[in-house]
Amino acid sequence: MKYIVVLGDGMADYAVPEFDGKTVLDVARKPEMDYMCGHGELGMVKTVQDGMKPGSDVANLSVMGYDTRKCYSGRSPLEAASIGVEMKPTDVTFRCNLVTLSDEENYADKTMLDYSAGEISTGEAAQLIEALAAELNSDKFKFYAGVSYRHLMVWAEGSDNVELTPPHDISDRKITDYLPKGDGCSMFIDMMKKSEKILKAHPVNLERIKQGKNPATSIWLWGEGRKPSLPLFEDKYHIKGSVISAVDLIKGIAKCAGMKSIDVEGATGTYKSNFDGKAEAALRSLTEDGMDFVYIHMEAPDECGHQGDAAHKKLSVELIDEKVVGYLRRELEKRGEDFKMLILPDHPTPITLKTHVSDPVPYIIYDSRGSSGSGMCYNEKNGEKTGIFIEDGYTLMDRFLS
Asked: CA 20 to 30 Å from 131, out of 31, 104, 153, 310?
């Protein structure tokens, strides 16, 4: 038996005005998911535990079977693990976004125009982080380049007694009330202001402006945490697993859980990602590399949700359905391979809010060997109609693998 998780990050939604009050899952053309839903189990699962913030870190850990109340130590340490940053127990890491702020003279009066600096490329971002590190690195603070707009800062002997806000939570808002608070806040704000001066005249940004793209005008610090410790996935479930994702957060979870992280060329985390490559890599992992389990993470619906882009969020769901779910079903059936597939979002990222919420999400469990099914299409409303509700999201993995 092979086990596949297809995770459409932020795929669930609220009613979307552009779709006449229907959700993305209502209107997206997704025959493969609808088939599996009709012939499998449909229900709702609460992936974000009470008292936890609805981040992709918390929600994906939960989907992978980890009780976040026991093992969660912050988002950025997982990303640190992915890019090979060795942490001491006394270190505190922070996610460092490259963002686009408005151009008011007073830093605190600026508005968060773009939390991703126009989805800046990894190559461009590496040059900017290198320039920032040359000016801002010290015995206390060090900057590390990641992927696209997602980077890392480490505070040696630091404090996690801070109040920081994810930049994607404040799109189109003034940053005045969301600047860092708590221990070290004056140092953080000072670094953010200095970053603006360093980035302003950098050739990468000048070229982006010339091309009509958003420049990276500042860093934004958030997602603090200390060195994580996760039980190994294989020890928990007695199967070998791999993870496929374009983002360091999910790769870091894989590394901390002792799973194989598979890189796919052209995997970007956007709707332009190499979905075909991800599906092909998943198939090879299951049929050639001896893996029992593969977790395929697709960031695209979440990115579109944060940008308020309903049309491309719908397209993202359709591409996942066609190029990942459909491809894997056909190829495994062709090989006579029994499999189970779990399809779900980690959390909703509603178009109307442009940020995450902690509402329960609809899930499908499909077994290729056949079983009684829900007889319904896959969407939020039908998930609620079934009356099946998994209160503790981390127990869904046990239900799936049983």
From this structure: 104
